Amino acid sequence: MLASFLLLLLLCRISFCQYSSDQCSWKGSGLTHEGHTRDVEQVYLRCSQGSLEWLYPTGAVIVNLRPNTVSPAAARLSVCIKPSKDSTGTNIYLDRSGKLRLLLREQDQAQGKVHCFSIREGALFIEAIPRTDISRRITAFQYELVNDRLRAESQSPGAPCQPCTDAEMLLAVCTNDFVARGIIKRVDPEEERSSVSVEISRLYRQKIHVFVSGGVRVRSWTGNIKMPLQCRVKSGEGEFLFTGTVRFGEAWMGCAPRYKDFLRLYHEAQVQGINPCHVDTD
């Protein structure tokens, strides 16, 4: 293990690459390939989320994305990448045992859309497009490792709109990135999704600060939750329990039962002793 780490540091020093202190992100420059435009650099990122920025791309970079723990569950992970809208200068492929499959062309990256693939499909092979002037070109994206179920939901038009089962509701309260009780104030259609403005009266949990406090004297929070456009959510329909995941800094709706329905379900499960976790409903 120590020998591998020292070798990685040596390779970085030679190519002037820069890893973040937690080795979740990488920043490199194609200028180190000057005179060697066919160079291929290996990058190793072992976090659940991070970023890559490649300045003045020349040659190619192979990005190996792996979780930082060894577990059989790792084979069921998916990788989601979100290119910067300014990302340019390369085509991105999936490399599995030397066989390349195109994932994103240069023009596709400018849309800034999230693209997901199974971790078993291989590493990312980022190939620079040969040009005489590379000075204004930067390839950049964020990445996240998610379980295959979340990937399937994000790619299935109907899945996010289907009501959750009772078991899914109870589990969501225990495991999701955010859990909050509140009302829908407004729904704004956006390209391929809706932005649901909510006002929160009780915040049980949030992974990052997607909901903003109204202040010390005002015990309420506000924020926006994303949903697929086809779900046709409406405002002004009572109080809900919002649950969901955070993807690339944005809250995405999961199970969202009416609060009174959740209370009934929770108390019934409590009597039966089948609640997966405790929720303070006072």
From TrEMBL:
Swiss-Prot/TrEMBL keywords: Disulfide bond, Hormone, Secreted, Signal
Residues spanning the signal sequence: 1-17
Superkingdom classification of source: Eukaryota
Subcellular localization, as worded in the UniProt entry: Secreted
Family, per entry: Belongs to the meteorin family.
Full protein name: Meteorin-like protein
